[in-house]
Amino acid sequence: MKRIVLACLALVIAQLVYAQNSAKKFSLVITNANVVDVINGKIIKNQLLAISGDTIKAVDDTKMAAKYKADRYLDAMGKYVMPGLWDMHIHLRGGDSAIGANKNLFPLFLAYGVTTVRECGGDMTPSVMTWRKQVANGELAGPRIFTAGPKLDGPGGTWAGSIPVVTPEQVTAALDSLQKIHVDFVKIYDSKISGDAYLEIIRQAKKRGMKVTGHMPFTVELKEAASLGMDGSEHLYYVFKACSSKEDSITEEIRKSEHTAHPIGLFGALPSLFNTFDSVKAAQLFKYLAQKNFSITPTLFISKTLSGIKETDHTNDSLLAYIDPRIQATYAGRVRGARRQSDEQTRFTQRYQALCASLVPKMYAAGVNIVAGSDCGASNSYVYPGSSIHEEIKLLVASGLTPAQSLKTATANGSKFFGVESFFGSLQKGKCSDMVILDQNPIADINAIDQISSVVSHGKLYSKSDLNALLAAIKH
Description:
Layout: H1 2-23, E1 25-26, E2 28-37, E3 42-52, E4 55-61, E5 69-70, E6 73-75, E7 80-83, E8 85-90, H2 99-103, H3 106-111, E9 114-119, H4 125-136, E10 144-147, E11 152-153, E12 163-164, H5 168-180, E13 186-188, H6 195-207, E14 212-214, H7 222-227, E15 232-234, H8 237-241, H9 247-257, H10 266-275, H11 279-291, E16 295-297, H12 300-307, H13 325-328, H14 332-340, H15 343-366, E17 369-370, H16 387-399, H17 403-409, H18 412-418, E18 435-438, E19 452-457, E20 460-463, H19 464-472
Parallel strand pairs: 1-5, 2-6, 2-7, 8-9, 9-10, 11-12, 13-14, 15-16, 16-17
Antiparallel strand pairs: 2-3, 3-4, 7-18, 18-19, 19-20
């Protein structure tokens, strides 16, 4: 009798579910999908994804497809569906004359399956804020934008548009201005900022509940910043410095030289840091950073690209055709700098980069939140939007991460930095519908991320031909 009652109850529940789904009409239903579970590193076969707007409303077995009505259907035909990629370090910059050129980069992101970017500071903040709103409203085809607005630096900082701060009062005013325009996080740069101002930014920003990441003056130690609540660090220079057995004494020498005729800069200190690298201290540091929920953006690809500029001819790069000449013109600065380096300096840089890359899987294993970022944008030569995050993901695998782990750095881990993982980062009911459909399995071979069949962004399906049309519109 009990079994009969349970069977009847199950039938009633099934009928209710069927009735609810039958009454709904979804904007898009995808069937026969092999879902890439980037969190657990596995493939879930024969899945159905029912989408309304920017949200996944149901995940089911494809055999239940008859009960799902939709405005549009897509048979994935066994292709692999994964969350849209996040590029956690880009720049939109180059001055007013390059505003249109920057806007024209958006199709490149979508064409490579990048549906979200973290914009790390530039000099066209009003335009970026407009684009952020237009993308969110579905008025502009492009990735979702999380932005820092203007960077914070010292007086006379390297990058145009930065806000100079020295005193605590100036820090307060700067953070007030950032909050007024509703930035998503604070980005600090290190070209001119003092150690005191740097730490004061972190103190005040954390009191306001603002996320903080950036570069770091070599007058400050990483653990000091992390202890105050800093959320992340860009590139690997600063974590590498903290792995030196002589970090304290080297930092003190840098501080003493700061206001002399010959200050010791980042690159001047690297040989000493390289020669005093301590794997035991590194392991202790990574454990500490994990406890602090710290994020690191390795940016391996831009380092490799810039260190190889002297030996590489980029004039025939196919993607140059999609980069506005006004942005291409900014590439010359990096090229000149690279050519001024001696062969010995170039060889040292490459050894240093190899050691830095070897730290990535160790940090990941320790629990540090590794996020993939390309650093693409004006002035960063031959690091092309969209394509560069694919190359970053591949280099993370080459460093020792598994393909599944590397994919996680470019999806779920980005949402973790912003604390929005309840909506982003995986393909589940109630979560974001941004996704990439691949011809092959990226967990089996990371190069599969290059074989994009279609992209879903803000609930809109872009076929391969749609993506090609977007690119054709910006080709020079």
